[in-house]
Design goal:
Length: about 290
Amino acid sequence: MTREWLVLRNATAGPSAVSESRVVAALERHDVRAVVESPPDIEEMRRAACEATEQGRPVAVVGGDGTVSTVVDALVHGGVVERALLGVLPAGTGSDLIRTFGIPQNLEEAARHLATPNTYRIDVGRMEGVWGVRHFVNVANAGLAAAVVEASDRLPRRIGSARYLAGVVKTAPGFKGCEVELITPRRVHRQHALLLVAANGQFFGGGWNVAPKALLVDGELDTQLVDVPKAAIPRLLPRLVRGMHLTHPGVRRRSLSEFTFTPELEWPVEVDGDVIGHGAFRASVLRTVLDLKI
């Protein structure tokens, strides 16, 4: 018999809340056996996900990348991530993780995947800084890209993924690049930069193909240091959205299983749409530890 899913709905994700009745209807449409719950806050959602996994139940989250990321972080900290089966029903501003697998952004269509036998065992990223330890599944950023996320969080949620582009327009003119140090197992790299990308998945910002060569199973983060004049950003953005920016001379790409990053300035750092702190950090990968429902 097919196991019953625990579906955890984040009522605050996305431009507008997805109702519990809509989630139930989507699941019933595809004959998915499930119990839908709406935890009162994210901490309760984290607790419920860990508890269900300990009981051997598959868990699906209704939300965006930030919701998925914080649940995965809870599963890792709770020591149950390797026993987890996690599904995603998109309802956030940017549900970019599932774009890598071609899963629809429409909740009703995405619910169909919970009724299939298909799973994919993926890597999980790990960030360590003065803020502590935070795990993520899709993309981490430091510098300008993180500042854009920080700014977009203050914009109206009703404009959806357009908040990211609006955040670029608002943030880029005043953002300060700086000298950075990237220490890898083989060497130390120093240069001037505007931002650092550390990608597990391929998409960011509501469909921007920031890391077209990223793989979620290779034990590495697709790491990019970007340094271009601010005047060149409007010309670079269309290439970045389409995943055609890697040949730009201002983009330095490396695949790294671990590294330490130190910017001269206290740059913001974000993972999967959540700003987690500022300054230096160490990044690494937990290789193929999580079963994702696809």
